[in-house]
Amino acid sequence: MSEETGTIEDQAREMGWLPKEEYEAGERDPAKWVPAEIFVARAPLFEKIDQETKANRYLRKEVDNLKTVVHELKGHTEIARKEGYKRAMEELKLAKRAALAEEDHIRADEIQDRIDDLKEEVKAVPQPAPQQPPAEFVEWSAQNQWYKLEPEMRKYADAVGIVAHNDGMSPSEVLRHVTEEVRKKYPEKFRNPMKDKAPAVETQPTSGGAPKKSKFTPTPEQEAIAKRFAATGVMTVEQYYKDLQAMEE
């Protein structure tokens, strides 16, 4: 082995490269192994890609932060505008009362005209359209009704989502991550309650024998019907299943 080759291999080892024998011994894909010279030569390219990836994540996070600031600034400006209108209207009303108290009706009428003009100016200002949630979130929430119906789960999901967003995940990645974490946190909320509650229907004992268990198993549609019947008080789940069993016999 020449001194130059040894130097390249030493340099490559410091960068994480392994000789072919050691590489394959670790049960890695032999097709992905490259000589030390190639490993060292392409290192700057990989480093550049890594730097660009980090830069893109940072830029995306900065853009998201900027959007948040702009949204908050709009809200702040709207509040300031409303406060200014309220203060101006109060001052005009006080001035009108003072004019009426002094029986200066001409001045009172002028102030009333200013009040009317101010009201018209406010009506002419276009009202900001209500901010609509992203379509992706609307679709996700429709598929995950627990987000609307379970306050505790919603709070946990929001907290997980904020952390994921701050870590640079895309909206779709955030929603997928939230779904996974919520299912881990509340597994009992995602089990089919009807399967847990469905009783084994007993048949009448035959002569000389003990009661035997029925092999009746409700379909998903029957489970849904049973749940609706029980919720509306039409009949219990057990009674509905017994009726089905009787119709099958």
Describe the structure in your own words.
With 249 residues, this protein is an all-alpha fold. It folds into four domains: 3-60, no CATH class; 67-124; 135-190; 214-249, no CATH class. The chain is built from eleven helices and no strands. The chain is 71% helix and 0% strand. It has helices at 3-14, 20-25, 36-101, 105-124, 135-143, 146-149, 151-166, 171-185, 193-197, 220-232, 237-248.
Task: Please write out the topology.
Layout: H1 3-14, H2 20-25, H3 36-101, H4 105-124, H5 135-143, H6 146-149, H7 151-166, H8 171-185, H9 193-197, H10 220-232, H11 237-248
Question: How would you summarize this macromolecular structure in one to three sentences?
Answer:
The chain has 249 residues and is mainly alpha-helical. The chain is 71% helix and 0% strand.
